[in-house]
Write a structure and sequence with these properties.
The structure is a homopentamer.
Chain A: H1 9-23, H2 30-34, E1 44-59, E2 64-76, E3 91-95, E4 104-106, E5 109-114, E6 121-125, E7 129-141, E8 153-162, E9 170-174, H3 178-188, E10 195-209, E11 212-225, H4 228-247, H5 255-279, H6 289-335, H7 340-389
Helix pairs in contact in A: 4-5, 4-6, 5-6, 6-7
């Protein structure tokens, strides 16, 4: 055999065959494919690089994260050849069924699919290094906290572990450090959807499996929601409706129009609840702030309608009396002018009473408005603080 | 062969091979893989630990529960070696195709997927104990009772049984007791979605299969819904609309505005019915309480609109008469003042009649309001009692 | 070999092996697995028990039914042993790949999945009876008639037949009669969703396949919808809106409020059409009654609005004239009292004309109302009769 | 061997085995299964019958058609036996892996699933005819034209071709003519959903594949939508709203109520746009007529609101002037009667002006109404013509 | 052996067998199927033609593109025969498992399915050219920019690369140039949905894979959305509502009706937000223009309502004073005419004040209207410019 430069095509072809035969791939042996390589160390070291290349879906209702990941698995096998003897061939692809491959599972995985298909090959280096590259479409369970939705940041784990090997047999190591992993992921990142990839943090830990224990390699993926559409579709409209409700206090006292205005606002908020219902799952002890925001504003508008009805009732009571008296007065003035002085007295008296009612209504109205504005401002500022800073 | 400390890497590697050969895995024999191990007892005991690690979906329409479960299966096989003779190797992984594995099915399962993929290996202990770990994504049929929705608790079963082995051949035992199973499940629990895992209760029973009978291991999983979002999105708004409808009785008598106010409330409840329709399936003889709640309030508001129309009609009748008479009077007073006394009498008479109508309207209004409030309070309190306590 | 009581564990184990060897399972022979057992009869009889254990989904748009079924298949094979000779072993499980199994297809099936996975084993009895149990998740095409939705009953078929065997080669028989099949299905029934299982009716028939013909075993499954939610979410609200529209005739004559009231009703019905659109597919020559119900009521409310506009127009015409005349009169009375008598005459004349318009309006109003109520009652009673009794 | 009547069960059984051995199925030969049968002709003729048994889904957004089809494939193989020599056995089932089967693909297919599972067997006749029956669930791409939705008819192709065989090697022929294919499909048809099967038209053509060319067998499936639900849910309600808008011109001149009436109509049409949005995909240069219908009516109602606002503005201008003058007059008449004659003149003048405005308003109103009705009628009649006749 | 014309069927049949034997397909050799053909060059050249035959789905939320593609793969293998020696047989189909096939993956692929099924055959030419044709249903990740939605053009990549072969081993070349690829794709194009295929641009580049590097073949697919339905369903209605809001300034000053008109417009825009929410995902720093369009118009209408309330408040303040004074005057004129001159003075004074308020209201109204119209026009023209031209 000769080196690369002097190799003819025929030499090249037969060089491949000779390597295959040299490495024993022409005969399948159950023992070679089933026993992990332990020639160099008792613990088989597997290096895994998991790059998040796309965030396909975050399902808050199912509490699941669907990502497209590129997974590079590297491990040493006790196979080798000297490339100069084989036409300079440094790497060869070998069918997975012909040698041992690590059985890596994902702890949180609900569903794992290969992007195209599982590659049937593993690339082997002349000094025994095996490389397997897979593009996976991965759905993993992820505990999500929607408290600060839509300004939330979620942390999801993708934890790799062997199905059966204990920590004395197989160890899964990260192929690169956190910084370069994140950088490479961002370089490969293909989507620009609702979620932004903030960081990938890799750490190892050991967990018990019955009487033995296992090495696990966790990838903590931090993603941040881009909130603009939710702000536009829920928060802004509801806020506009709240402002309109506050301003509706200055609508002319003829209560009915005010009422119809306010009840239409309430109806509009109900329509927006349809959007909220499509978006948010029912969760946890801590109700999402956006739910509190919508419900509180809904209730506030409801209460302000009650107040308007009450004030109108008082005004109407006052107005009614006045009306009765006025018509009485009018009749009096028409019929005769003589009895007017004593009537006038009762009139004054009734007038005062009705004015009293109206005054009460006005006091209630103003007091409520002040309280209302204070409540709204306090509520919104507290909410905003929690939303952005907590 | 030597013990672990004196083993070189080469020794280690060949130790593995020797165990494989010792256990006979270098030659596949149809009989070893197809016959269940009966060397230690006539009944093969299989121990299964089923940990619910995530509740992915509860589909009320399909009456199905989708969970992610971790299933640990342990059984004894009549294979053994003395680890001190083999470099201290206590456990080895063996391909599933090389030995008998229990064929456990899930009775309620509609769909079963492996989280990542089925592990090709089983771990074998030096005294013959086999361990297989699988992460499954499981959709099971579950009889749900939505009567108390959204304050409901559902009980779903995941029942394990062998496909063909009778109870004289194979017995499925729980790997741990209820308490530790629940505790371990909660420790592994990854989701914080709509449902809370309350308890896992394991029990065994025997069921007939044609002329033989089978052992089954049922896991009764109790889950509790977190109702807050439904309270916020349906119950609270509908309640606000009801309160507004009650208060609308105090809207000034000019009926039309009242009517438009009330009919807008009805429209708003219709919008909320859209949310209800998205959420609830059509079920059972016992209609869900939330349906009764929404429908009853819808109907109550409808009836109160009818009452308003009736009262307005009566008032209008009275008012009309008064108006006719008043205009008559006004004309009279304008045209001449002499004929007024006899006219006044008819006026008084008509006035009384019209006042009578108005009085009837008022009595109906008040009576209805009282009845209405009593009905609403009774209805709501009964509903609340059933909802929370039954 | 010895009987069960005297068998040690080792005997037991080797008894299994001996049966396997006795039955020839240690060597795979293409002829044994490919040729149907004909030693006992020319026609191979297969007995199938198909139990419907859950109705997962009924998709009216796709006209498909998704069920979970338990299918027990039993057939005779010309294999046997005398159990007393083999430690009392009466049944053994054998891999499906080792013997002939019937190839049963489902004629209507769109999609068939195994609940957990296909069991790799078949149970064989000492006198040659083979049993295979499968839990299937089955989506079948089903011709649905939605005419009486939501009070409908659907009849779906699940027809079993062999893929290639003619009726002279293979016959599929029911394992039990209709009554016990239905009873067993109901006992196993796990769901309590929208559909109630009414009956399962099994019958056999022969159908031609090119020049040969095949035996088919049809399971006619009758299911009944539980209509309560649809009644609550569509029928009741639309009915309430209809009643309100009828009652709106008694709203005080000031037409505008009446109009706004009625048009809000129409809007509310439009909102409910959203629910209807989500539920019903567009089907067939016979339009579903619920569609007729909603559309008719929608149209009726529309027509009643037209009538209100017409009546208001007439009243306005009358009122306008009266108003013109009244202001004229008022001016007259103010300016001078002398010219009043002749004016009064024109006044009377105009008054009569305007009253005439108003009278016409009233007659139209009352006539329409009567016709309207008659139409509504007739329509609803006819609909109700068709709905419940046909 | 003997004929059917004299055959015992044992003979029967061994007859099967002898045929298998006669045909060479006891030994698998790579050459028999991989080479197409060419003993009778150079071109292998395959006869395919494709029956559409159910239309499961038509997805306009994805432009795909999902059908359940029954596909019967028949071809000749150079295998034969004389049935009288083998107990009268005329047909035997053989595993697909044992002989050559045609590799037929569907050109438009996006997804193909077997209804139950792929039958492992092929039926072979004693004179070499092979029959394979499959029930497929097929999703195919289909160019749809939604211009006339919901009165549209779609034509979808299901084209069969071989993956690699050229037209000199394999020819796919229809098993029956168009008429009987349609008739058989209709007999098997199981669904009664939104679509009606109009015709199946089969034709063959040749298409180039790089330097060779292939025979293709196209099935042109014509399906017709049943439009009733769309008429009821979109077309009818929108039409009712249009009629109401036309009639709203006759609402009493007090513009505000008219406006609120009309804007509610616009809101109702918006709600119906929600239904339209759920149904129609955004397509092509020719916008669907139903989109034109809804948008045009939406715009027409919008324009008529603008007109109402304009007319009201003019009326208000007139009315305002009149009001100013009237109050002036009233004050005059109250304060003193002497200055009235000159005032009266200005009054008359102002009156005329204001009446002039009102007259202009009325002319605009009537003109617009006439134009409006003409436009609407023209638009609707043109639309109806295109919809039904084109 | 003889040429095609003199070949009998038997010769033909045996010619096939002889070619198979000549090429060595009668015995499977692990080395022939696993080693890439290197007889003609060190780098194996693979030619791939990827034709986009249908755009099935573009999911903006998941940022994924689903297409149906036809992929033709061509490569040279060192197998050959002289067709004249074998009955003129120029091409033969061979099972994929019998020879080496390139392992091409798609970099962006989330999911890849075969349209019908993977063809088991490869076509081989007499001079060693292998052709494989596959119809794939492909879901790929695609970075989408929705800034100009619905007038957007998306560029998606489908990049082909080998799983393990480096750029020194395997090179993927396009089978044809860009123009003919686009033309062929358009000829095959089966759908006419929301998206139009604009261009396909093919380019090659090299990317690093750990220490080696790979050849990649990228297909840049440019697709253009057909925006008409979105224009009709969102942009047009929202625009109509904006125009109506502008025109509502000319509604008669009686503020309540104006308010109810305007708030109904706001409610209608809320309903359209439901459609927007269904369509748009929450993305990126650059918020989609359509979101800005809807939100801005929503806010503008909200602000104009606030302005209306303010103006009405001012008017009411003026009107109230006037009313108080007028009633005072009326009483005065009724009670006595002597004190009127001094009262008249105060009256005039109050009148002026109230008129002052009304004047302020009018100035604000007009100023706001002018600003409002300018803002709207500027906003819309800027938006339109960005939308169409950027």
């Amino acid at each position: 055999m000769s080196d690369a430069e002097n190799c003819s095509y025929e030499d090249y072809s037969s060089a491949y065959k000779t390597i295959f035969e040299h490495l024993g791939f022409n005969k399948t042996d159950v023992l070679t494919t089933d026993i992990r390589p332990v020639s160099w160390s008792v613990i088989t070291n597997v290096f895994v690089g998991l790059y998040v290349t796309s965030i396909i879906d975050v399902n808050e209702k199912a509490q699941s994260l669907t990502t497209q990941v590129k997974m590079i698995t590297v491990w040493y096998n006790d196979l080798s050849w000297w490339f100069e003897d084989y036409c300079g061939i440094k790497t060869i692809p070998v069918k997975k069924s012909m040698l041992w491959t690590p059985d890596i599972l994902i702890k949180e995985s609900i569903k794992t699919d290969f992007g195209t298909k599982e590659s049937p090959y593993v690339q082997i280096n002349f000094w025994g290094l095996c490389i397997s590259v897979d593009i996976l479409s991965l759905t993993t369970a992820c505990k999500m906290d929607l408290y600060r939705f839509p300004f939330d940041t979620q942390i999801c784990n993708i934890t790799l572990h062997s199905a059966v090997y204990t920590n004395e047999e197989l160890k899964i190591n990260p192929i690169s450090d956190n910084t370069s992993l994140l950088q490479d992921s961002k370089d490969l990142f293909q989507a620009q959807g609702e979620w932004e990839l903030v960081s990938i943090n890799v750490y190892e830990y050991t967990s018990g499996l019955l009487w033995s224990s296992q090495e696990l390699l966790a990838h903590q993926i931090t993603i941040k929601r881009r909130p603009l559409l939710y702000v536009m579709n829920i928060i802004l409209p509801v806020f506009v409706f709240l402002v309109l409700d506050v301003m509706s206090f200055f609508i002319d006292a003829s209560g009915a129009d005010k009422l119809s205005f306010k009840v239409t606002l309430l109806l509009s908020v109900s329509v927006l609840l349809l959007i909220l219902n499509d978006t948010l799952p029912s969760t946890a002890d801590k109700i999402p702030l956006i739910g509190i925001y919508c419900s509180a504003i809904f209730s506030i508008i409801g209460i302000s309608i009650l107040e308007t009805i009450l004030v109108n009732l008082l005004k109407a009571k006052g107005g009614e009396k006045r009306a009765v008296e006025t018509t009485a007065v009018e009749r009096d003035t028409n019929v005769g002018d003589q009895q007017s002085p004593p009537d006038s007295v009762g009139d004054q008296h009734g007038m005062q009473r009705s004015l009293c009612w109206i005054r009460v209504a006005r006091i209630i109205d103003v007091t409520f408005l002040v309280l209302y504005i204070i409540t709204v401002i306090t509520f919104l500022s507290v909410l905003a603080r929690i939303w952005y800073q907590s």
